[in-house]
Design a protein that fits this description.
β13 (406-411) and β14 (414-419) form a beta hairpin. The chain has 479 residues and is an alpha/beta fold. It contains 14 helices and 16 strands. The chain has a single domain, classed as Alkaline Phosphatase, subunit A (3-Layer(aba) Sandwich). The chain starts with a helix and ends in a 6-residue tail after the last helix. It is 33% helix and 19% strand. α7 runs parallel beside α10. It has an eight-stranded mixed β-sheet with strand order 4-3-6-1-8-11-2-12, sandwiched between helices.
Amino acid sequence: MNKTLLMLIFNARFSLTLLNVLVCLSCASKPKTEATKHINKKPNILFIAVDDLRPELNFYGANHIKSPNLDQLAGESLVFNRAYCNVPVCGASRASLMTGARPTRKRFIDAHTKKNEDYPKAISLPMLLKQNGYTTISNGKIYHYNKDDASAWDEMWQPDKLWSYALPESQEIRENTKRGLPFEIAKVHDSVYRDGKLALKVIKDLNKLKESNQPFFLTMGLAKPHLPFTAPKKYWDMYDRDAIKFPESYIQPETTPKQAFHNFGELRQYENIPKKGDLPDELAKELIHGYYACVSYIDAQIGFVLDELKRLELEDDTIVILWGDHGWNLGDHKLWCKHVTFETALRTPLIIKVPGKTKGEKTDAIIEYIDIYPSLTELVGLEAPNTVEGKSFVPIINGETSKKDWAVSKFKDAVTLIKGDLFYTEWTDDKGVAYARMLFDHKTDPLELDNLTEKPEYKEIVEQLAIELREKWGIDFLK
C-alpha cells in the first residue's frame, strides 16, 4: 500500500473520529444547556388567597367538610395551626398582608381600605417581586379594590361580579337589590361561577408562563366561600343538612362585653335575611350548608390548578402558599360574618409548600399575617424593605423552634394580644384608655365563653397583658 493511500485512510479515520467527538460533545451539551437554562432563575410563587375561609378543614382536625385537594396540598406543605390575621376584615387584612405592615388606629381599618391611600410609601410584595424580575399577575380578589396597587402588576384580571349567580332570576335580583340572594343552588358546570372562570384563567397563565425564562408571582384570588353561598348543585349534594349541627358556642354569655358582638350587618344586606334578632334555625342551617358547599367547590378549583402545575412540570420550581384573609363566624357566639376579635374571626388557614423542604409538617408556632411578606422574600433570596414589620417564619420551615409566642390583631377600637393560650382584648379610646376588656384562657376555655378580666385572681395578669399589648403593637398604638 503506497504512502498516498495510507494518508488518505488516516485522514478519513481522523476526520470520522473528530466528527464523532464533536457529535458526542454536541449531544452532551444539549442536556446541560436545558438543565442550566434556568439555573439562575428564582423560585416561582403560586399565591392562593381564599375569601372568608375558616380553618375548619380535615388537616385542622375537622372531618365534616370535604376538601381532598386542600388535604393533599397540606400533606406536602408546612401547616400553621396558629396563624392569625392582623385585621378581621378583607380590605384591611389584604393591604396589611401585602405590605407586611401592622394596622394602626388610622391605617388599615375596614373593608374600604386601599393600600395606595393608607400606606402609599410602602413597597408591596408584588411590587418588590416585579422590581426584581418577576412576572406578576393578579387574578381575582387579591386586594379588595381591583385597581389598588395597579403598577405592581404586569396583568390584572377580574371575572364579572354577576357570575356570583348562575340563574337569570338570581342575577336579576342582584341587579335590583343591594346584595341579592344569600345562596343559590344551580345545576351548572363549575365554570359558570366566578371561581370556575378564575381556575381556567390561572391554568391558561401557567401554560403561558411555562415558556418564559422569568420567575412568576401568579395569584389566584378565590371569591368563595364569601357570601353569597352560591355553588353548583353537586357540591351542595355532598352534605346532609339534617346532619348539620350548630356550634358549641351558640351562645352570648353575660360576662362578655357587649362591644364584642355585632348585628352581622353584612349578612343582613342580603335578601330574605331578617333585619334583627337571631336567625331562624332552618335558615341558619341552610347558610351553614351553603358555606360547606362553597368550600368543596373552591377546593375543586384549586385542585384543577395544582394538577396543571404538576402536568407542566412546574411544581418543583414553585412555592405554593394558601391563606384565608380572616376567619368567619358560622353561628359561633350567635354571630355571622367576621368583624370581631373572637378567635373564630382571627384564626386562619395558612399552608406553604416549599419544594424540597416541606412534606406535611405541622407547627403550633404563632404566626401573624404580616410575617408572610418577609418569609416569601427570604425564600426567593430578596431583602424585605424597612416598612415591613413582620418576622420571617423560614426558620420554622427549616425545622427550627420559633421563639415568638404572640400576635396582635385589631378591629376598629378593639386590639387583641394573643400570647400563648391567652387572648386578651382591649377597646380603647383615642387616648389609649381602655373602656372594655376581655380575657380568655384557651387552655381551659377554647370556645371563649368565660371572660376572666373581672375576676380578682386575674387582676395582675390583666395588668401585665395591658402593658404587653401596647409594647407588642408598637409605636403606632395611637397613630
